[in-house]
Amino acid sequence: MSRLRVRHATGYQYGGDVTQSYNEARMLPGSGDGQFVLAANLEISPISSSQAYVDYWGTRVNSFEILTPHGQLSLTATSLVEVQRSEHSSPGLSWSDLAPAAQGSVGTVEQLQQTRLTEPPAELAAIAGSAAADLDPCAAALAVCREIHRRMTYMAGVTGVQSTARESWEHGRGVCQDIAHIAIGALRSIGVPARYVSGYLHPDPAFPIGAPVTGESHAWVEWFCGSWHGWDPTNDLPIGERHVLVGRGRDYADVAPLRGVYAGSSGSRLFVEVEITREA
Predict the structure, then answer these.
(1) For a Cys staple, 185 with which of 7, 37, 120, 139, CB 3.0–4.6 Å?
(2) Which pTM was predicted?
(3) Measuring CA to CA, how many Å separate 134 from each of 43, 131, 143, 144, 150?
């Protein structure tokens, strides 16, 4: 079991005064799936009234509007989470049983459909099919994710938040968001339901207690083969006690940490700072 404190500060600096803005933040984790939230708080500046709810995919959302002139929007999410995860031991489904099981549930059938961000090129679909050959769905999903890890290089600055799996695959480089989109597209192409997961990862494998480290928002995948299994294709490891889950969806667009619209300024600059501390 680990206890992680996460501080995530983000927002926009505008080129001039913004007269009004309407926003959604998905920055606070929820309890369940091997984690328990001990404390969670979101500070918004300028001060604004906000509405908290859980969206269709089960992610905590803070919706808020600011109707006074402001040159900067700042949010700071602070969470303290206990994480204790164990491996699934239940047997997986066969291919013949997976198809009707996936089609029979809204939670899985929606994760079979490709999106603009996950649609794989023909080459990637063929590689996924080859990696999955002669394996059951659970083993096939793992093999596909590991093959993508082997073929993709983690590199920031090559892609952006709107980059698709096709574009990232062509570059052969990208960040965790891109690698997750590629893995999801590949898994869906072979008939395995897969979903995008956003959260945080303590970046130090040594996992020291009491030492704050600079982190980033992280992304990984979950696939369904009888039950849901999580895997981090960027780092080629199972989801464990260094991972804090915030949200799930079809792709990044469903779980963006901050998004909104504003009026009054022609430009903006996003800033992000994440600090993670293991406390136990």
Answers:
(1) 120
(2) 0.96
(3) 51, 9, 11, 13, 20
Closest CA to 35 of 86, 88, 80, 82: 82
The dihedrals phi and psi of 89, each to the nearest 5 degrees, come to -115, -5
Instruction: Please report the DSSP string for 139-200 in residue order.
Output: HHHHHHHHHHHHH-EE-TTS--TT--HHHHHHHTEE-HHHHHHHHHHHHHHTT--EEEEEEE
CB of 8 within 8 A of CB of 257?
A: yes
Task: Convert the pLDDT of each residue in 238-280 to its tens digit.
Answer: 999 999 999 999 999 999 999 999 998 778 999 999 999 999 8
- Structure tokens, 52: 């908290």
When the pLDDT of each residue in the chain is averaged and rounded to a whole number, the result is 95
Place of tokens 């206990």: 82
Q: Tell me the β-bridge partners of 43.
A: 76
Instruction: Report the distance separating Cα 162 and Cα 33, nearest Å.
Output: 29
Number of other residues whose CB lies within 10 A of the CB of residue 160: 11
> Is residue 180 scored above 80 in pLDDT?
yes
Spatial neighbors of 273 by CB under 8 A, at least 6 apart, are 7, 8, 9, 10, 214
Q: How far apart are CA 276 and CA 4, in angstroms?
A: 7
Q: Quick one: DSSP state of residue 220? A: E
pLDDT in tens, 55-114: 999 999 999 999 999 999 999 999 999 999 887 667 789 999 999 999 988 889 999 999
Q: How far apart are CA 46 and CA 36, in angstroms?
A: 30
